[in-house]
């Protein structure tokens, strides 16, 4: 079978793009700067990417901001990352709301400081009615833990006699995920040249197209996003239907 024609540039972008934002520390080290400066520049890349995604017409953008494994980093760096998260939720909320962006956070919130939990709740409540772009921020997030969360929900239902084991299917597991109403990502991008999922969206990314870019996250911009979208546009999405 002949290869499919690449999509034209006028084709619609994927509805949902997910990004593993990697390379802040390497960006800073290469420039002889402290790690915090790399994370600060990474936050600027978040701002630019959210703006570009909305302008391009992407409906859902999921960003891996802080994994459940990141707590193992030096305490000073964790404190810096939490401080940047506070800063982002406080300083960017008005602009996001003004630009019709809905903010959602997925992950284990109970493991976060109380003030961060309150900021998350405020951001979500303020932007709940916005429709231009859903910005989903994964914080204290792990894909395996998310699946365990869904499994425990089903186990509780089964123990109460609400369902039987034979009832459990993919849709029931999906209903127990952190954001079950969000469509699966068609495109998952990882920056910095690393080529692994790192426990990110393990269930949802089952059929996502993967694009690995050597650019470090602080240097990621609209051009890099459009380059990844162009790569996605040339892929033949088969969903396991045929091989070769």
TrEMBL record:
Active site location: 22, 70
Pfam family, one: Prenyltransf
InterPro entries the UniProt entry points to: UPP_synth-like (IPR001441), UPP_synth-like_CS (IPR018520), UPP_synth-like_sf (IPR036424)
A Gene Ontology biological process term: polyprenol biosynthetic process
EC numbers: 2.5.1.-
Residues that hold substrate according to the record: 23-27, 35, 39, 67-69, 71, 73, 190, 196-198
Binding note for cofactor: Binds 2 magnesium ions per subunit.
UniProt keywords, alphabetically: Magnesium, Metal-binding, Transferase
Coiled coil: none
Domain of life: Bacteria
Entry's Gene Ontology cellular component terms: cytosol
CDD domains: Cis_IPPS (cd00475)
GO molecular function: ditrans,polycis-undecaprenyl-diphosphate synthase [(2E,6E)-farnesyl-diphosphate specific] activity; magnesium ion binding
Reported cofactor(s): Mg(2+)
Sequence positions that bind Mg(2+): 22, 209
Enzyme class (EC, first level): transferase
Subunit structure of this chain's protein: Homodimer.
Function: Catalyzes the condensation of isopentenyl diphosphate (IPP) with allylic pyrophosphates generating different type of terpenoids.
Family, similarity comment: Belongs to the UPP synthase family.
Matches recorded under NCBIfam families: PRK14830.1, PRK14834.1, uppS
Protein name: Isoprenyl transferase
């Amino acid at each position: 079978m002949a290869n499919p024609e690449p999509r034209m540039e006028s084709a619609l972008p994927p509805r949902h793009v997910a990004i593993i934002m990697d390379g802040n520390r390497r960006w800073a080290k290469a420039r002889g700067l402290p790690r915090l400066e790399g994370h600060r520049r990474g936050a600027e890349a978040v701002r630019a990417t959210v703006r570009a995604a909305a302008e391009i017409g992407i409906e859902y953008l999921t960003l891996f901001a802080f994994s459940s494994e990141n707590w193992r980093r030096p305490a000073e760096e964790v404190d810096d990352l939490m401080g940047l998260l506070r800063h982002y939720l406080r300083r960017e909320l008005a602009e996001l709301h003004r630009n019709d962006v809905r903010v959602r956070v997925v992950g284990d919130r109970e493991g976060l400081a109380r003030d961060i939990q309150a900021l998350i709740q405020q951001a979500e409540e303020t932007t709940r009615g916005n429709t231009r772009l859903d910005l989903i921020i994964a914080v204290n997030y792990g894909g395996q833990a998310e699946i365990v969360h869904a499994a425990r929900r089903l186990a509780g239902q089964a123990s109460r006699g609400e369902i039987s084991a034979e009832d459990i299917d993919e849709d029931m597991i999906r209903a127990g995920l952190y954001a079950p109403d969000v469509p699966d990502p068609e495109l998952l991008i990882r920056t910095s040249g690393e080529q692994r999922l790192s426990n990110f969206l393990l269930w949802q990314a089952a059929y996502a197209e993967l694009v690995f870019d050597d650019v470090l996250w602080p240097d990621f911009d609209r051009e890099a996003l459009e380059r990844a979208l162009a790569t996605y546009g040339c892929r033949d999405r088969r969903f396991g239907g045929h091989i070769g």
